[in-house]
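Ticket #330: bound-state structure for flavin-adenine dinucleotide.
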Amino acid sequence: VASGGIGANFDLIRKNWPARLGTPPKNMVSGVPAYVDGRMLEITEHAGGRIVNRDRMWHYTEGLKNWDPIWPNHGIRILPGPSSLWFDAEGNRFGAPNFPGFDTLSTLEAIQKTGYDYSWFILTEKIIEKEFALSGSEQNPDLTNKSISDVLKRVLPGAPGPIQAFKNHGEDFVIANDLKELVEGMNKLAGNDLLDFIKIKEQILARDREMDNKFTKDLQVNAIHGARNYVGDKFVRVAKPHKILDPKNWPLIAVRLNILTRKTLGGLQTNLNGAVLGIDGQPIRGLFAAGEVSGFGGGGVHGYRALEGTFVGGCLFSGRQVGRYLAKGQ
Ligand SMILES: Cc1cc2nc3c(=O)[nH]c(=O)nc-3n(C[C@H](O)[C@H](O)[C@H](O)COP(=O)(O)OP(=O)(O)OC[C@H]3O[C@@H](n4cnc5c(N)ncnc54)[C@H](O)[C@@H]3O)c2cc1C
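RESOLUTION: The complex was predicted; output attached.
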């Protein structure tokens, strides 16, 4: 069994949603293809396999509705740099460690505890140009095509093509030349009046003031300076620190962020050869599992709060374990 996780099955996600992450989201976008439906998990369980850690899952908090979907309800994750300001649905800025790109599961918990299943980035044109990348091979043609000249173009001014397409067509984007207009646009997009212009302005002003303070205690501003200490990130990934309310950095941009389903960290329990264990803890003869369906090889090789990007390695490794075992003719 190598059928992947449950990320496209929202009913199953809500049913298994862990209490520690607040209430399950009513609305989500799907970060995985429709076949990632968990059906083989149920079939294998009926065949006697044991499922463990059903409530272990990893969903992203920076999901965009894809304007050009490949699968139903297709969501794309923003891989954000550190400078966007992150607000909950009522316009309260999140505190540490819930800054862009910092701690996915902690931010997911913070968002779900607000009672709303979306949040907002507010940023400038200068930030989006440098700091937005999109997850998925089709969203990064320069890397996928191994084109060094295209990768180098990331240093040039202007948003990369796929980002610009989202700015033009994506339903989660609001772009304005004035903060009041931006906040009005955000309320209109959300279909409510939860955001108060003065409250948002005060918080952005407070953050902007810290741009002039060498000894700032604004931990996000510190993180921006810290990220720029690495020369690679300074050139291609982190915008030069600037004031969000300074019109020379505009237009202003707001992005509504949806919960985007992605990874399943529980699943079929196996032994170290990938043999599926039954309820009695004994291997079921002839039944093997690998990859996400077995929690990346029996319960999450890298742990529950695994580092970003370390998931596929466990899937490949568990497949290799099964392959090697079977190749020995056992
Ligand atoms: C956009 C995106 C970006 C990602 N980025 C990263 C990253 O940067 N780093 C990282 O570590 N991980 C990343 N992941 C996660 C990683 O890709 C998956 O965890 C991994 O591919 C899972 O591998 P798998 O072989 O277990 O399952 P899958 O790759 O999901 O393959 C399952 C296969 O089983 C087939 N199948 C399903 N049901 C049936 C059935 N009933 N009958 C027959 N066939 C069936 C499917 O067609 C599919 O071919 C990303 C995932 C996505 C979607």
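RESOLUTION NOTES: Residues 2-4, 31-32, 35-36, 39-40, 135-136, 263, 291-293, 309-312, 315 surround flavin-adenine dinucleotide (CB under 6 Å).
TICKET STATUS: resolved
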